[in-house]
Write a structure and sequence with these properties.
- The structure is a single chain.
- It is built from six helices and four strands, in the order αβαβααβαβα.
- With 183 residues, the chain is an alpha/beta fold.
- The protein has one domain: Response regulator (Rossmann fold), CATH 3.40.50.
- Strands 2-1-3-4 form a four-stranded parallel β-sheet, with helices on both faces.
- The protein is globular.
- The termini are far apart.
């Protein structure tokens, strides 16, 4: 109490972190390849677009076999060659709270979408989409799992994710503009 009074008197009020306007969760099976790649790519695009901290993101896996693990070394290497740093990310499992917390939950493929649909409360299912629904240049409906593939598979994932995330930025700008006009 006394510390608070002193801070206020000195003009050192504690800064509260502003709540983001929009939250996105990227989801793949293990949260070590595709979804952390999407998180890093999208985070960079959000920063470049000047939308941070209003737009935040995270990633998770539908299965818990890599909880606490770093992203796959091949995913980290491919991402780093393009300037994306995945080193601080750690695998985590989708939680029930995620369906309430995130405005948009983007699955990398239909298998993970099916898992999310089974877990998601009916009143939140409109938040679930496939990431590639936003892609402009790539026609594939899913981001392929590169885990058992070559280094080139990780490059393809980056190409697809960069494409979809770029269009996702435009989608979120539209949503935010519509919210502002509605006020």
């Amino acid at each position: 109490m006394i510390a608070s009074i002193i801070r206020n008197a000195l003009g050192l009020r504690a800064r509260r972190r502003a709540e983001p306007d929009f939250r996105v969760l990227f989801v793949c099976m293990g949260n070590v390849c595709r979804s952390p790649t999407a998180e890093a790519v999208f985070r960079r695009q959000v920063e470049v677009a000047g939308l941070a901290p209003a737009v935040q993101c995270a990633s998770a896996g539908t299965h818990d076999f890599h909880v606490g693990s770093s992203p796959d070394g091949r995913a980290r290497a491919a991402a780093l060659r393009r300037g994306y740093d995945l080193s601080r990310l750690r695998g985590r499992h989708v939680s029930d709270d995620d369906f309430e917390r995130y405005d948009l939950i983007l699955a990398m493929d239909q298998h993970n979408m099916s898992f999310l649909m089974q877990r998601c409360p009916p009143h939140r299912q409109d938040r679930l989409k496939l990431l590639m629904e936003f892609a402009r240049r790539h026609q594939a409906p899913e981001v392929p799992d590169p885990y058992y593939g070559s280094a080139q598979a990780f490059e393809l994932v980056l190409d697809m994710v960069e494409d979809a995330c770029s269009a996702l930025i435009d989608h979120i700008r539209t949503i935010r503009a519509n919210k502002t006009q509605a006020k």
